[in-house]
Amino acid sequence: MRILLTGSSGWLGSALAPRLRSLGHEVIGLDPAPSVQTQVVGSVADRDLVMRTVADNGIEAIIHGGALHKPNIEHNRNEDFVETNVRGTLSLLDAAVAFGVQRFVFTSTTSLMISQAIRAGFTGGARRAAWLTEEMSPEPRNIYGVTKLSAEHLCRLYHIEHGLPVIVLRTARFFPEADDMAHAIEQSDANTKANELLFRRLTVEDAAEAHVAALEKVPQLGFDIFIVSAPTPFRPEDCEALIADAPSVVVRYFPDYPALYARKGWTMFSSIDRVYDASRARERLGFVCKTGFADVLAALAAEAT
Ligand SMILES: NC(=O)c1ccc[n+]([C@@H]2O[C@H](COP(=O)([O-])OP(=O)(O)OC[C@H]3O[C@@H](n4cnc5c(N)ncnc54)[C@H](O)[C@@H]3O)[C@@H](O)[C@H]2O)c1
User: N or C: which end of the chain has fewer CB within 10 A?
Assistant: First the structure.
């Protein structure tokens, strides 16, 4: 397939473009930042460029990962977010409809489901962790979430009005850099990421693979939204204990974790404020992340022997 991949110079794009090529696809990367994965240096908000790129390359599928995201909030204006994330998505959807593209995959974010109240967590008075599925009505707390949710709505609208097959992937975090949250300060990066695999993280390889699965299934599914995160061991009935005393819950599922963590000097978060439930992706998309918390423990156990 001839695929237009936006955000091709970024972290996800750099993993996804080679993966798609290894499957035999022709990938045209579009990104304002040049890189080996990017053939068209420019913005999704440049409507003429987008139209030309789709038409001239006979594009059959669009994977739209390019965006301003959370780390950009500090240095960009709200209108920059609207321009890239909303107008940019609209240009791509219009180009898809104009030139008969039959597959559209949009990289969204679980972050848009996190309201101010959920983020405040235990210290904000929450009595239970939020159990998050695609059924909830998001109330995004920042311009990133607002523009991603708007872009999701545009995707849905283009499916309704034009029959464009679209899958929206609300991916959890897969960024490589250290967390911005307070508890990360006391923990090593590897420790933080391991903990997060329990409820809010996936590897970049799994993120790329979810896009491959979506690309394959989108004509069949028509329109759908999926949370993509490593499979959680937790259940909704754990939510009260998770926010009050997370280690007591984790040890029930993984009795060997305290000893393995102790060897590394690692600690568990004392409180877990949300859990992303990726079971819809498993059931309808047939996609499950390969790497989860159990794999980290297996690696720690192997190190110890
Ligand atoms: N990294 C995460 O943890 C995470 C979590 C959830 C969702 N996401 C989403 O995944 C996607 C990829 O994120 P990433 O982690 O690879 O980030 P990244 O910053 O490494 O990559 C984003 C890419 O988008 C490009 N971009 C910015 N403005 C653009 C424009 N106007 N037109 C085209 N491309 C543009 C950037 O130049 C960059 O190369 C984004 O849509 C992001 O919102 C990321």
Answer: C
Q: Measured in angstroms, how far is the CA atom of residue 257 from the centroid of ligand 1?
A: 34
State the residue range of the domain holding 63. Answer: 2-304
Distance CA 102, CA 166 (A): 9
Q: Buried b vs exposed e over 191-202: b needs ≥16 C-beta within 10 Å?
A: bbbbbbbbbbbb
Q: Ligand 1: does its nearest atom lie under 6 Å from the Cβ of 68? A: yes
Residue 164 Cα to ligand 1 midpoint, Å, equals 23
Closest Cα to atom 1 of ligand 1: 175
Residue 65 CA, ligand 1 centroid: distance in Å: 6
3-state secondary structure 253-273: HCCCHHHHHHHHCCCCCCCCC
Alpha-carbon gap, residue 4 to 26, rounded angstroms: 9
Q: What is the pLDDT of residue 180?
A: 53
Candidates 14, 30, 31: which one to mutate for ligand 1, based on the most atoms within 8 Å of Cβ? 31
Give DSSP secondary structure letters for 227-239.
EE-PPP---GGGH
Which CATH number does the domain housing residue 253 bear? 3.40.50.720
Q: Please tell me the total count of domains within the chain.
A: 1
Local structure of residue 177 (DSSP, 8 states): S
Is 109 close to ligand 1, i.e. is its CB under 6 Å away? yes
- Please give the sequence-ordered ranges of beta strands (E in DSSP) within the chain, or none if there are none: 2-6, 26-31, 40-41, 61-64, 103-109, 130-132, 166-171, 223-228, 274-276
pLDDT in tens, 27-42: 999 999 999 999 999 9
Please give the pLDDT value at position 182: 44
d(CA 209, CA 223): 19
